[in-house]
Amino acid sequence: MAQIRMRSAKGPNASEIEKKIKRGNALRQSSSWLSTRVVLALLLASAGVCGSFMWLYLSSLDPEITETLARQSELLSPEPRVFPVPCSQDYEQHKRFPGCTIQQCARAVTDAVVTREEAHVLRRLAERGLSLAGSEGGASILDLHSGALSMGKQFVNIYRYFGEQLDEVFTEEDFRLYRDVRRRIQSVIARTFDLNAEHMYLTKPTFFSRINSTEAHTQHDEYWHPHVDKVTYGSFDYTSLLYLTDYGADFSGGRFIFMDPDGNRTVEPRAGRLSFFSSGSENLHRVEKVTWGTRYAITVSFTCDPAYGISDPALPTAGP
Ligand SMILES: *[C@@H]1O[C@H](CO)[C@@H](O)[C@H](O)[C@H]1NC(C)=O
Ligand SMILES: *[C@@H]1O[C@H](CO)[C@@H](O)[C@H](O)[C@H]1NC(C)=O
Q: Which key words tag this protein in UniProt (predicted)?
């Protein structure tokens, strides 16, 4: 009975079974297509991961760079990224100024003080100023405070040399932005190092720099030597660098390197990025040679000693 029923059940069900088999095949096909896609995706993903590791590996191959403190692609905001370092003994021979003399040495980087738009305006200002002359070698400077501008193998004073012509090169607004940025830099340094901004003074040299890959013609063009700002410039207590162009996009090479006994640590320039540090031997540094493109930056320096203070620049026609 059962067999008969099965057999008789088989009749009407035969086409059902065929359908099931076809559906199963179709499913299997689509699932094998699916799994091919999954395998492909996995392959791609692992290739990506391998690629990233390869990139990390290759970039870690730069034998002279131990650590990158700030990459160009990062946005350090709103708080500065601070790296404390033990103070050198440089400060012991110097007079102490309450509210300004360093308590805890460090280096710091922030992208939150100057916008990229402001950096662009300042870069245009530097381009126009430096286009008046410029060094024959790869490094030129423009100091709006003293008026010093690289020209050939030496310097000229733009205020004396170009006089009223400067009205066509700089605007009052340019100078206002420059002064305002200087004030903001002073205040972020004061906040970070727990100082009184009113007891800090702008000092010299404070200047724009333009560096390209052309070889040096004089020693003024040799920007890449390791140095300590407090030793080189005496009056410096806090050094800051405001970058106006992007590492990797506008130029290559030109990274800032802190040379520590246990390794080299870099800051990659980024337009609008401010890097600042205590100026003593704890922050021995150099700038890597620029290999292509043009690097623009402003060095803004502060002292604790009012005797070394300088004032903000003003256009001769507009200022006192
Ligand atoms: C670098 O700048 C100088 C001007 O200071 C210019 O004469 C030279 O052609 C520039 N070099 C490159 C490679 O752009
Ligand atoms: C740091 O860089 C200098 C050259 O710029 C190199 O001689 C030195 O070996 C580097 N230090 C380390 C620890 O990699």
A: Dioxygenase, Iron, Membrane, Metal-binding, Oxidoreductase, Transmembrane, Transmembrane helix
- Report whether residue 209 contacts ligand 1, using a CB cutoff of 6 Å: no
pLDDT (tens digit per residue) in 16-54: 656 665 666 665 666 565 576 767 777 777 776 666 666
Q: Which atom belonging to ligand 1 lies closest to the Cα atom of 139?
A: 5
Is residue 85 within 8 Å of residue 284, measured between CB atoms?
A: no
Atom of ligand 2 nearest to the CA of 63: 14
**Element holding 132 (H helix, E strand):** none
Sign of the C-alpha dihedral, residues 104, 109, 115, 118? positive
- Kindly report the pTM of this predicted structure: 0.81
Checking if the pLDDT of 247 tops 60, the result is: yes
CATH of 67-308, one of 3.90.45.10, 3.40.50.720, 2.60.40.1180, 2.60.120.620: 2.60.120.620
62 lines ligand 2 (CB under 6 A): no
